[in-house]
Amino acid sequence: MTEGSQIFLLPISTSDSTKEPLSPVASKAQDPSLLSNRLMIEKQQEEAEWESINGLLMTHGFKPLCLVKGADLRDFIVFDKQSSQKMRQILKTLMEETTRQQSMIRELIETNQQLKSELQLEQNRAAHQEQRANDLQQIMDSVKSKIGELEDESLNRVCQQQNRIKDLQKEYKMLQVLY
Q1: Does pLDDT of 112 surpass 90?
Q2: How far apart are CA 179 and CA 168, in angstroms?
Q3: CB distance 66 to 1 below 8 Å
Q4: Assign residue 71 a region: left if phi > 0, alpha if psi is -120 to 50, beta otherwise?
Q5: What span, in angstroms and rounded, lies between the C-alpha atoms of 92 and 49?
Q6: How many CA atoms lie within 13 A of 57 on its CB side?
Q7: Is the sign of the CA dihedral 62, 68, 71, 73 positive or negative?
Q8: Closest C-alpha to 83, from 21, 37, 17
Q9: Helix (H, G, I), strand (E, B) or coil at 12
Q10: pLDDT beyond 80 at 114
């Protein structure tokens, strides 16, 4: 690997300042193989936790951290168990928070798109309703105009009929006078 392309980290603890020293009686009572097994299990758990963190890092597009064993320590930063645990917890929390924020951003984008779609739909409906209102107004104006024409025609007919009646009455009177 080229220099700077990977972050190197030594999570395998080299000192454990948080442990209390064992009393001479307790240290004699412990079986060396039990202690060795317990240390091996702790080491495997710590490595598994770092691998889990690496998975989260890669999921978010970051480069994984390298677990270094038995190397020259001059080129590395070494953490004790407590610092290593804190670092893993911080990285895990950071990745979880990043995931939560990305999820929130995706939801906001989806909601925004949905609102834009709904707005477009409502604008289309409003334009349709406005056009319909304009069409109805034109129909109403046309009907009013037609009613006005029909009223005028009707008044003309009534006037013509009244004039005709008057003419007929005059004729009738003239005919009565003659006969």
Answers
A1: yes
A2: 16
A3: no
A4: beta
A5: 10
A6: 17
A7: positive
A8: 17
A9: coil
A10: yes
Backbone torsions φ then ψ of 41, nearest 5 degrees: -65, -45
Q: What single-letter amino acid sits at 55?
A: G
> 172 or 8: which carries more pLDDT confidence?
172
Place of tokens 């999820």: 103
Tokens encoding 41: 């299990």
- Round to the nearest angstrom and report the end-to-end CA distance of the chain: 139
What average pLDDT is seen over the chain?
83
> What residues contact 76, with CB distance under 8 A and at least 6 apart?
8, 9, 10, 68
Give SS3 for 2: coil
CB pairs under 8 A, 24+ apart, for 116-124? none
Any idea which residue has 């691998």 for tokens? 51
Under 8 Å CB-to-CB from 99, ≥6 apart: which residues? 60
Q: Which helix (H) or strand (E) segment is 163 a member of? A: helix 81-178
Read off φ and ψ for residue 102, nearest 5 degrees: -65, -40
0.85 cut: is pTM over it?
no
CA nearest neighbour of 91 among 9, 22, 20 = 9
> What are the residue boundaries of the structural domains of the chain, listed by start?
7-102
Per residue in 70-94, pLDDT (tens digit) is: 666 677 777 788 888 898 899 999 9
Kindly give, in sequence order, each residue whose CB lies less than 8 Å from that of residue 43, ignoring residues fewer than 6 positions away. Answer: 12
